[in-house]
């Protein structure tokens, strides 16, 4: 079962621009995580934001969390062609034993 | 960082045969492992949760007799696709948790299964 939705489903930008992806979910969570997946590969963990946190930064990545709206956003600043990948949010819901439920994902294409 | 090794990375098999996929946590003990399935251009769908020393918990709609999961040690879980059919062709990804609260999962690189 899918937890929620991500938008946009696909995003195409030029190098140097910022990319913003949004994620919505349905249940109460312990944390929300963002992952990156290159085509045909496994997932790479980007950021984990806890339910009591509102914003988190890691390098060019900025994640926000609004638990009242059950939504999160991932901002990639000064994008590079190497950022081209699919990005997924995933929620660790309470009382679910740590399993992650993934959103639909955003396919990001950064053109040089 | 924590490493999860998944093997094989790809496999082609004939209809009716069984395929085993291994997932190993290389530098940590994984009390829990998760198996996901991903169709092209789609998200990851959780298939089952594998707990060391106990039976796996399958998500709704996943046939436990079709997808056999064994988590015999704290570093190894296996997924066996039994009597594979072309519709089982997919990308299977495992992930492992060291069991710490509010910690990320570590993912293997996935197995591309093609059933002919």
Structure overview:
The complex is a heterodimer of chains A (112) and B (116). With 112 residues, chain A is mostly beta strands. Chain A has strands at residues 5-7, 10-14, 19-24, 29-37, 43-50, 55-58, 61-66, 71-76, 85-93, 100-102, 106-111. In chain A, strand 9 and strand 10 form a beta hairpin. The radius of gyration of chain A is 13 Å and the shape is globular. Chain A starts with a strand and ends with a strand. Chain B contains no helices and eleven strands. In chain B, the strands form two sheets. In chain B, strands 2, 4, 5, 6, 9, 10 and 11 form a seven-stranded mixed β-sheet that branches. Chain B has a four-stranded antiparallel β-sheet with strand order 1-3-8-7, with no helix packed on it. Chain B is globular, with a radius of gyration of 13 Å. The chains are: A mainly beta (112), B mainly beta (116). At the A-B interface, strand 4, strand 5 and strand 10 of A face strand 4, strand 5, strand 9 and strand 10 of B.
Summing up helix and strand content along with how strands pair, one would put the structural category of chain B as mainly beta
Q: What proportion strand of chain B?
A: over 45%
Content-based structural category of chain A: mainly beta
Question: Rg of chain B from C-alpha positions?
Answer: 13 Å
| Beta-strand percent range of chain A | over 45%
Number of strand segments of chain B: 11
Distance between the first and last residues' Cα of chain B: 37 Å
Pattern of helices and strands of chain A: EEEEEEEEEEE
State the shape of chain B: globular
What is the average per-residue confidence, as pLDDT of chain A, rounded to a whole number?
92
- Alpha carbon gap, first and last residue of chain A: 36 Å
Largest sheet of chain A: 6 strands, mixed
* Contiguous helical run count of chain B: 0
What's the mean pLDDT score of chain B?
Answer: 92
Name the chain pair with the biggest interface and residue counts per chain: A-B, 26 and 31 residues
Largest sheet of chain B: 7 strands, mixed
Oligomer: heterodimer
Strand runs of chain A, count? 11
């Amino acid at each position: 079962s899918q937890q929620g939705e991500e938008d946009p489903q696909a995003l195409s930008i030029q190098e140097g621009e910022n990319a913003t992806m949004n994620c919505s979910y349905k249940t109460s969570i312990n944390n929300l995580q963002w992952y990156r997946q290159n085509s045909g590969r496994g997932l790479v963990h980007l950021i984990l934001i806890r339910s009591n946190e509102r914003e988190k930064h890691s390098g060019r990545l900025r994640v926000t969390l609004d638990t009242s709206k059950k939504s999160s956003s991932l901002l990639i600043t000064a994008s590079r062609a190497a950022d081209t990948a699919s990005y997924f949010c995933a929620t660790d819901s309470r009382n679910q034993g740590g399993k992650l439920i993934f959103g639909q994902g955003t396919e990001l294409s950064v053109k040089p | 960082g924590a490493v999860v090794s998944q093997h094989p990375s790809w496999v082609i098999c004939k209809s009716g045969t069984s395929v085993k996929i291994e997932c190993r946590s290389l530098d940590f003990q994984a009390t829990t492992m998760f198996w996901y399935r991903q169709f092209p251009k789609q998200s990851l769908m959780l298939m089952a949760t594998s707990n060391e020393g106990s039976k796996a918990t399958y998500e709704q709609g996943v046939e436990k007799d079709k997808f056999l999961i064994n988590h015999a040690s704290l570093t190894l879980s296996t997924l066996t696709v039994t009597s594979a059919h072309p519709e089982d062709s997919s990308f299977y990804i495992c992930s492992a948790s060291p069991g710490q609260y509010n910690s990320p999962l570590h993912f293997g690189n996935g197995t591309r299964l093609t059933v002919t």
